[in-house]
Amino acid sequence: MQRLLSLDIASGLERFERIVAEDYLVYLPPLASRHAALQRLKELQARKIDSYVIAQGDLTNGISLGVFSRAEPAGAAVRRFREAGYEPAMRELPQVRQDYWVRVAPKGARLFDEHLMDSLVQSFPRLRQLKKECEGVASPVRLE
Predict the structure, then answer these.
(1) What letters, b where the CB count within 10 A reaches 16 and e where it falls short, cover 130-142?
(2) Alpha carbon of residue 84 to chain centroid
(3) How many domains does the chain have?
């Protein structure tokens, strides 16, 4: 961005978040207190169940029973814990990726040539370019 501004290419930075995958948390709902959660944790660990107390967020004082990368194994874990006498729940945990786009203003687009793009790619190998010519229909030039 600084390099573009130093070349007098009007541009702006935009940040986008997108979900790239989801994990699945199997947990016991929050208990009334930290003490109650620790008691439940001791009970689970005595039964050789790998678990830990959730310390923050809306599930504070809940017990995590595992995080799974696919829904099927998470569902199977929920069934196993129910058969063992517990009332687990499952929640999707989105994995969010932040992407940054540089929007080049139409008046700066003519200065943004292949040579400049090649130079930027040398500095930022994951840089990609998406060029759209019609303002009003699409943005002029975007870099991701």
Answers:
(1) eeeeeeeeebbbb
(2) 33
(3) 2
Give Cβ neighbours of residue 30 (< 8 Å, ≥ 6 apart): 37, 54, 58, 59, 60, 61, 62
Domain extent, residue 115, equals 2-19+97-143
Degrees (nearest 5) of the Cα angle 62, 68, 72?
115
Give the CATH number, domain containing residue 74: 3.30.70.1070
Helix ranges (DSSP H) in the chain: 2-6, 34-46, 71-83, 106-109, 114-123
Q: Are residues 85 and 116 in the same domain?
A: no
Q: How far apart (Å, rounded) are the C-alpha atoms in residues 38 and 32?
A: 11
* CA angle (98 as vertex; 105, 16 as ends), nearest 5: 45
- For the stretch 120-135, pLDDT in tens is 888 888 777 777 665 5
| pLDDT mean over 54-76 | 97
